[in-house]
Known about the structure:
The complex is a heterodimer. Chain A is an alpha+beta fold. Chain A is 33% helix and 21% strand. Chain A has helices at residues 2-8, 20-25, 27-37, 66-76, 88-97, 113-121, 144-153, 227-243, 276-283, 287-296, 332-337, 370-387, 398-407, 416-422, and strands spanning 17-19, 41-43, 105-107, 125-129, 139-141, 160-164, 180-188, 191-200, 204-205, 214-215, 218-221, 249-258, 261-268, 311-318, 342-346, 359-367. In chain A, strand 12 (249-258) and strand 13 (261-268) form a beta hairpin. The N and C termini of chain A lie far apart (47 Å). The relative contact order of chain A is 0.12. Mean pLDDT of chain A is 90; it is low at 408-424. By secondary structure, chain B is mainly alpha-helical. Chain B has a single domain, classed as Non-ribosomal Peptide Synthetase Peptidyl Carrier Protein, Chain A. In chain B, helix 1 (3-15) runs antiparallel to helix 2 (33-47) and helix 1 (3-15) packs across helix 4. The longest helix of chain B has 15 residues, at 33-47. The relative contact order of chain B is 0.21. The chains are: A alpha+beta, B mainly alpha. At the A-B interface, helix 1, helix 3, helix 11 and strand 15 of A face helix 2 and helix 3 of B. Chain A: Residues 92-296 form the ATP-grasp domain.
Amino acid sequence: MRDVLLAAGDDIQVxxxxxxxVKQQWPGLAVIATRLFGELTEVDEDxxxxxxxxxxxxxxxxxxxxxxxxxxxxxxxxRHRGAAAAxxxxxxxxxxxxxxxxxxxxxITAAADFDxxxxxxxxxxxxxxxxxxxxxxxxxxxNPDKVATLKGSWRPEQALYAEQFIPTxxxxxxxxxxxxxxxxxxxxxxxxxxxTTFGKFPVHVRENSADGKVATTGDILPCHLPASVRREVxxxxxxxxxxxxxxxxxxxxxxxxxxxxxxIIEINCRVGGHLxxxxxxxxxxxxxxxxxxxxxxxxxxxxxxxxxxxxxxxMFVPFPTEDGTVRSNVTAAALKDAGAAAVDEIARQGAARSxxxxxxxxxxxDRATAEDLRQTAAGFLVRLRELFAEDAIGHHDWxxxxxxxxxxxxxxxxxxFAQRAEGV
Amino acid sequence: MSSDLVVRSHWCAVLGVAExxxxxxxxxxxxxxxxxxxxxxxxxxxxxxxxxxEVLFTDGSLAALIEASTAxxxx
Lengths: 424, 75
């Protein structure tokens, strides 16, 4: 809500459309939203009308509302983004037909389909919801026990699909970047342009999760990839945008740095979560504002310059396990003393770990150079291990692994994928 | 209780901290939109007036919120 308010400025009028259930569940939210933006309109699949002055367009920043936003936009005959391309299985199918991916995918319409997928793809393979984002409910299936777990818990409303696992180029032991990146693209009147590309921190696979759930852990600017590799990645993403029915707006595409070359993981038809704070910090570019401008049919902002040494990162530090309550008492001030430039979220002592999606904290790091960022991130996690000692952070978990990797000397490019592409 | 104390005490309670500096910014010290709503509602319940909520969402500093709340309470 705050991002939208700041992005709208004085020249874009935002008309909030709220699901009827949200107003009942969060009355305070509705009151504040009314005071910030004006009268709210309640909508759902049976109520697509928006009274008052005609809208210029409809946009959402939530994956779960892409279809409703598209339905409203279509009903009103105003600028909107179609929802068809948001289905990840559709994406994979179209991209494969266009020769833009080698990854095969299958729909899961019955529990027995997991056995069929296992026989066809072998291990490992990946199970995802056809709609979803940020690693939510993504499962890497690497043993038969996980297949059995998925079969036992399968329900048709999960709308799952399975796809082949994309092997990664073997990472250097001390590489601290993930084996995937994200590309943010704007689409205006059929023209697609890269806004910027983010590096990532490696994902966290939850140890106590019998089905191997994956959690994303953060984003980095500037992207660490060598120029030629980055071009290859971005060209692939733009090519995908040309063959999919994506429509105008801003998208967030995740790309794996595969052993055989870059492979699109998925395209999310909305602004990437937690990224706006980083682009605004590094270049002043507002992703949310760009989405609003494009939706409103107004001239978009100039694309950000991607130069400069300044390095920024958002980091979501996971608890080793999802269950239980937070034992440590850690303040935002302590995290700032440890090197965080800003603290967006922090797990409170006594609260359920699940309240923060099993994250100890969500912070921003802001340094003069990438090397400085690496050192700061390393020191931050070392301190975090002390602060969250009672929650066992930093012991046989993501944090411990990252402390080792961040502390080790990073080679140029920081990833074996770069070596393959450069012919080294 | 003065507006200053009302705002400070609720700010600290919502963010779960013992104390806060005037320059602290809500959304950079663990605050989010839902916590912001909680904070505004608590302040308004105690002061009995509507506080300019946009101050918290735009400036976001404790100092600005205290100033705006004090001004609202004195009108």
